Amino acid sequence: MPNYIVGLDIGSSSIKAAICTENENGDFEILDYAYVKSKGINKGRISNPDEALLSIRECIDKLKIATGKDITDIYVGISSEYCKVISSKGHTYVDGIDSKVTKQHIENAYLDAKEIILENDEEIIDCIIDYFETDNWDYKNIRNPLGIQCSVLTINLNLIISKKNTLNFFEKIISGAGYNFKGVCLSIDCLKNIFLSEKTEDSNVAIVDIGAEKTDIAIYEKNKLKELAFIPLGGSNITKDLAICLSIDTNLAEEVKESYSHKFSTPSNGTIKVNESTFDILLVHDIIEARLLEIIDYINKNIIDENFSNDIEKVIITGDGIAYYENIDYIIKEKIGKNVKVFTKNHFSFEKSSIITPISIVKETHDRLKLICDQQMLWNKRVIIDENNNKSKNVKKRGFSRVKAFLDEIF
């Protein structure tokens, strides 16, 4: 294992990064995180590479200062906008004197699962291991097959498919900022490390990440990724609506939105005053409500389109887009008709709830690298484990257990 792992989430409103390590007990531990305002990024896409590179450098520099680490390698979270998921099985015969699964058998099954037919403009950018199966009835749904005695080993993968040159694009951006690009993780799927657990193993769950200008959706059946969806709408659309309808600039519109959000579900006659400007409360409410309900409707339609609506028992909402509106969980529950839980920055004790995304990216990367190191398992040809023998400096530590603790009461 490398001494530390850095994950980066490139968003339209902010760029976030987190750094983790493995403590003396072998447990995942968050060292610190950082975020800066995004520049050169529009709807999750890089519109001005020069400005985007400066924002990335600024964010990582803050992380360097906070931890004292000489950061060189970065893993990047990627939006479901770029991706689709395909389930695939790979098989291999287990031969040998004792017919026990070895690293080579796992690699053979892994490579077999990747042998699928793609469109000419597509490539596999990530492979997520769901579970392993064997023809040994005692081992049908397992995480670690090494040493198991069987005749046939089967691996179940979720292949993340994107347009060709997607990896090269992100590599160019990260290397342009002065860092080594180590690979990508599907951001919305990384959130399963935060929100899914043994308590959701018998449930179907939708995780919805609502950002500034886009919404990512992942649907899980018994903790296994089944579908992805993307909506080009987010919290900034509400800001733009306020700016247009109230004839004000977007900065003031953002302040109006934030000032009113804490009393959104209890509108009344009167006015709201923001920075010496006065606005009709009911007008502000109606503008926000119209766009808010549209976003919720799109989320519901995407779940229905994937034919999972009747089966989904829980919907988890996260992100900074709409989470801070008063009683938003009840509003969404009324529209969607599901058990809804909305997570805000207060649940995580972070300045922004979206900080949880880069933390989930480093958690996902840590678990995969640990799998490689502990079990000698293939993950991705782009992953190279670098040994860094520099001793860790004293830094502020944030244990992953703190992030997970409050989730026990949800399900």
Automatic annotation (TrEMBL):
Q: Name one GO biological process term.
A: cell division
Pfam families per UniProt: FtsA, SHS2_FTSA
Source species of the chain: Clostridium tarantellae
Keyword list, A-Z: Cell cycle, Cell division, Cell membrane, Membrane
Q: Name one GO cellular component term.
A: cell division site
Q: Which family does it belong to?
A: Belongs to the FtsA/MreB family.
The taxonomic lineage of its organism, from the top, reads: Bacteria, Bacillati, Bacillota, Clostridia, Eubacteriales
Assembly with partners or alone: Interacts with FtsZ.
Coiled coil (residue ranges): none
Q: What is this protein called?
A: Cell division protein FtsA
Write out the function statement from the record. Answer: Cell division protein that is involved in the assembly of the Z ring. May serve as a membrane anchor for the Z ring.
Report which superkingdom the organism of origin falls in: Bacteria
Q: Which SMART domains match?
A: FtsA
Domain (SHS2): give its ranges.
5-190
Q: Does the keyword Cell cycle apply?
A: yes
